[in-house]
Structure formats: C-alpha cells, structure tokens
Protein: ABC transporter
Organism: Halalkalibacter akibai
Amino acid sequence: MSVNKNVIEVQGLRKEFKSYSSRSGLSGAFRDLFTRNYKVLAAVDDISLTIKQGEMVGYIGENGAGKSTTIKMLTGILTPTSGSIVVNGMDPHKQREQFVRTIGVVFGQRSQLWWDIAVQESFRLLKKVYRVSDEDYKNHMGHVIETLEIGPLLDKPVRKLSLGQRMRCELAAALIHNPPLLFLDEPTIGLDVLVKLKIRKFLKEINEQYKTTIMLTTHDLTDIEALCERVVLLDEGKIVYDGKLNQLQANAVEGKQVEFQFLTEVYVTDLPDTRKVLWEQKDATTWVANVNGDDRVVSDLISLVVQKNPIKNVRINEISTEEIIRKIYEEGMALS
C-alpha cells in the first residue's frame, strides 16, 4: 500500500430513516394498523470525504449530527440510501467477509470480548476468526500487550475488569490482525486521565510504526487535540468543516486574549485605545486584552503596550477547541 493511497473514499453519501408518528384517539390507532404516518429524515446528508493512509482524523459533532451513522456505513453495518463508499479498495457492505479483515473497530459502548471467559481466550478466538498466524500474533500482539500494560489482565474474565482495563483490552482485540485502518467511536468515554494518556500514547505509536489510519469520533476534544491534525466537523448530517485543527482555531481569532501583568499599577488611559481591542481589568497590575484580529494585530498590540509600560509578564490565551466548536454551533460561525 503506497503512503498516499486513499484508504477511505466517500462520494455523495446519504442515509435516510423513516420516523413514524401515531395518530391520536381510538380511530387513529385503528387507522395506524393499516397505514402509518411517517417522515423521512436524513441522518447523513450528501457527505463526500477522502482519507489517506496514515492520517489520524477526528470526526466530531453534537449528538445526532450523524457521526455514528457514518461510521456504521463505513464499517459495513448499515447500507447507504445513496452514494458510494470505497474503504481499503472494497465496498464494505458487499465484500463484507474480506473487508472486515482489513479494519479494526472499537465502540466505547459495545464489547467484542466474551464476557465470561478470560481475556486471552477471547484473543485466541479472534486470532482464529481473523486467521492470524502464530508467528504474526506473537510478534505483533507481544508489543500491543506490553504497551497497553494488559499482561496481568489476560487471565481474568472480562466481567471482572474495570472500565479502563476493559477498554485497553478492547483496543488490543481490535488490533489482533494488525489492520491498516482503525475506527474508534468514543474509545475513552468514562475513563480516568491516566488511562486516557496511555491509550493516546499507544495510538500515536501504532500510527507512526505501522502507518495505521485512524478515524476517531469522540466528545472528548482533548483526545482530538492530542491525536488529530485534521478534523471533520458534522452538523445535521452535513460536513461544515474539513481541514486542519489549527486552521479551525485560527478561524476563531476573535477569541484570542492577551494577558498583561505590569510591574506597577496601570490605568485604562495608559493602554492603547483601538477598535480591535476590548480591555478588561483583573486587578491593579493585570489587564486582559480581548483581541478581534489576526496574529499581526496581537503582535502590534504587544509591542505598543511594552513600549509604554514596564512589563512583568505577557501571556496569550488561545481559545480552546471546545469553545470554538460551541461557537460554531451557537452562532453558525462562517468557516472558510
């Protein structure tokens, strides 16, 4: 597989569901027996997307935006209403048996491990399902087990594991056949910070070592910031942004704040008066400038302030990704 090959190619993808409503009263209930009222809703509405080998892409949006529906179509669980999907050179729905051997899937809310048997027995069964040779299993899974620190858990039944332990085992199970493409749907949901850090570190490692392509859907935007350079933002079944995470942050420049800590007490009259800056006083020696402009405006402001006043410290507070995405949804912020 060449490095720049498209692993996922989606054109005009659409998934419709029927939403049924009941008529009121006894006569309505009787009529419902023969004909039902329904509306057609598009959970995914004309999405086009390409993802190259080795990319780590964050697929984000509010509940009901269409994230899980997309993942289910990309993994062959759901059939699209219209549009085309090619993943790893195959149609996920039509070439199901061959296709599933080329992907790994971790759904935070569902398990692929057998509840009552030891973790390593689940691994052995999956090894047979995916037809992985003893040598490949030993070489690859030795590293996975060591890195995820699940060696001591292998003899335990899944029901005896904590959520964090189970999710690390789920991730290992998804990688038994060393797939070139990994789908992660809320993989760190409900986990403590240390476990999250371990999982993020591991995902970065397999991405670097094997060029594993990773598509990640999550509500935890710190996962996205730690792992993904590219984000695809979904709203009401449509893609509203597809590009670099840092560009998304740059588009929200009005959220930049510069905090100035002065050596002596400073009054608002000592500070530059410009239409692009709104000053806010924190205490006698600390002022915050809310800047509406690009990096050059911020740079010009800092040099103006520093020329006129003795400075103890200057800090630029970037708006968080979470804040940016909240603004996009609340204000319908234009994204170019």
Summary: The CA atoms of residues 221 and 322 lie 6 Å apart.
